[in-house]
Every structure is written in C-alpha cells, then in structure tokens.
Amino acid sequence: MASGQPRALITGITGQDGSYLAELLLGQGWEVHGLVRRSSSDALGRIRHLLPSIQLHSGDLTDLSSLLSLIGRLRPEQLYNLGAQSSVPQSFAQPLATLQITGLGAANVLEAVRLMSPETRVYQAGSSEMFGNALESPQRETTPFSPASPYAVAKVQAQLMARHYRERGLFVVAGILFNHESPRRGEEFVTRKIARAVARIHRGEQAVIELGNLEARRDWGWAPDYVEAMVAMMAGPTPKDYVVATGIDHSVREFAEQALALIGRSFHDCVRVDPRLIRPADIAALVGDAGLARRELGWRPTVDFAGLVERMVRAELDLCAA
Ligand code: GDP
Q: Which of 154, 169, 174, 306 could form a disulfide with 124 if both were Cys (CB 3.0 to 4.6 A apart)?
C-alpha cells in the first residue's frame, strides 16, 4: 500500500459530505479510503463514479475492533469522521441507536486513533444542532450547547470527546457545521424534500407538498463549500473547533416559496401542513458566525440562499428531464 501519496480515511463516505470530500481529496492527489457498513452497500449511489479511484473497507463505527484493525493497517495522515445516524426525526424514534452510532462511534474512532495511529489528524463532524434553542445569536464556537434531540445529544458527546482527546495531545479538529445542502442531500431533509416535490409538481405527478414546522429558521449553505472548510481546518497549524455557516437564516416557508416560484407556482396553492411532521421538540432558529473560520482559514461561502434553492430545484428538474 506504499504509494507515496498522502492517505485519508473517510467514515460516512457514502453520504453527501463524504462524496464531495472524496472528490476534493482525490483532486488534491490523496489516496482515499472509505469505511462502509455492509448494509450501506446498496447506498453507493453518490460515490459510484469514484469507485475506481477510492478503496472501500467494510466495518462499523460501533465495532471498535474493526476500527482498530483498519486504522492500524492504514495509519492514514488524515481521518474524517463523517459517519453518523444523521436524521433528527429518526433520532427521536431510535435514540439509543443514535447514541451508539453518532456518539459512541466517534469515541471509538478517537480511541482507535490514540491506540493505533496517534499521528493521524482527525476531523470530527460537529453540528449546529448541538446549540439547540441557544440563548445567543448568532452562535459561535463559545456558545454553550443546549441539545434538543437525541441526535444533538449524541453530537455533543462526540464533540466533548474530540476536545478531550485534543487535550490529551491528538490533533483533533471539530467543525461545527450549520445545515449544508446540495442535490446529494438525503431525501429525508427538508430542502431536498421540497426540491424533489417541486419537480414532481412541475411534471404533474404530485399536487401538494406536506411539511411540518414552516417557521423553523436555518442557516442553509452549499455543501461543497463546507467540505472545503473541513480540509482547510485539517491543514491548519492548531487543532480547534470552527463554526462553518453563511451567517444568514431563512425559514422553511421561504425555502418553499422560492422553490415554487422557480416553476411559477404559489406557496398558498401547493403547501399543506401535516401535523405528524411536527417534531416532539424543534429548534426555532439556527444562525452561525463563521468569523473565526474566515479569519484563520480564509474560508467564505460561495453560494447564497437564492443560488442554493435554484441549484437544488434545477438538479431535480434536470433529473426528471434525463
Ligand atoms: P435539521 O436542521 O438537521 O433537522 O434538518 P432538516 O432539513 O431535517 O429540518 C430543518 C427544519 O425544517 C426543522 O426545523 C424541521 O422541523 C423543519 N421541517 C418542516 N417540515 C419538514 C419536513 O417535512 N421534513 C423535515 N426533515 N424537516 C421539516
């Protein structure tokens, strides 16, 4: 396996961020490896075009022994821990599995690095969900966590373990990424759900979009920008936490309005609220201050809200046309 190229291992490589990150690292000359659960082999869609160039290994974040053996064998320069049960609604239904995968899974990765490859730089995928209904707005690296779902509790656990291992001398960065979207976003997330539904409405296959909390506000950015921030953090001199966000929030209602306007349809005619989609606990608003990432990493978002909505809807319309 001695190729002379720097080597990166990505957990969660089949997800939205994993697929963009793999593309970015391959383009920079990295040897890219991915950890894949056997059960997600049917979910290789986002990385199928990369398969000749990346090496996949089957394993599981909840299985420390598979991590010990893989990390010990690869001894990668960089490890990006993006693997998680990442759906908030799913976490209300399966809180314990979420804690195991998203929380304990991160601790397993860190422990495996400490034991088998302590020189490896680790990226831990933190989330703005950790802030919950924060008292401070915008949220920054110093804002206290106030998790409002089992997913967020698990991410806080992972974040605190990342800080702990950093204090013990490992190079561990933790990106606190606000919502970031793209045509590769999972269909269970609201932006992709709306974009898909708008394309179906345009084709006459669906009459209305059923949504939950329309007034929830999120700071939505463009996912490929966010993986650039991950790579910049890992290249920095000092491991720390960084917020990655656009600094501007919009409501679910606004997202749906703008998406429908692109096909000349109105929100009033096409959106219904389904009370079953309203969560047991929700976060009213999240908006991040990425000032530290801007100053220290030179990172800036390149796509604004209108551009994001348009890219997502156009991609669904193009899929239909294909
Ligand atoms: P999250 O911020 O990681 O939970 O990302 P989501 O895209 O799943 O949800 C963003 C916001 O949209 C949350 O406040 C949801 O309550 C709200 N929302 C409203 N309707 C829907 C829906 O039909 N599906 C999802 N996933 N979220 C919805």
A: 174
